[in-house]
Design a protein that fits this description.
This protein has 71 residues and is an all-alpha fold. It has a domain of 38 residues. It is 37% helix and 0% strand. The longest helix is centred in the middle third of the chain and has 26 residues. The termini are far apart. It comes from Paenibacillus hexagrammi. This is Glycoside hydrolase family 57 N-terminal domain-containing protein.
């Protein structure tokens, strides 16, 4: 079969990160969660998008950001 198959795939990255800044503890659990999310999710996602741009592969990105609630 020589016909090209076209399709779409979508990924949704969603997380609930609590308020990060803690006056009492400089290395709180919430702050570690934030840095973990950045290094293990957001930076790899940005690197993947950079590779797609370099390979001239079209893509779309939808990003939803909501403010955290303060404690």
């Amino acid at each position: 079969m020589n016909e090209a198959v076209h399709g779409y795939i979508g990924f949704l990255l969603h997380a609930h990160l609590p308020y990060v800044r803690q006056e009492i503890d400089s290395a709180s659990l919430e702050e570690r969660w934030f840095y973990e999310a950045v290094t293990e999710s957001y930076l790899p996602l940005m690197e993947m998008m950079d590779r797609l741009l370099k390979e001239q592969i079209p893509y779309h990105l939808t990003l939803s950001v909501s403010p955290p609630c303060s404690p």
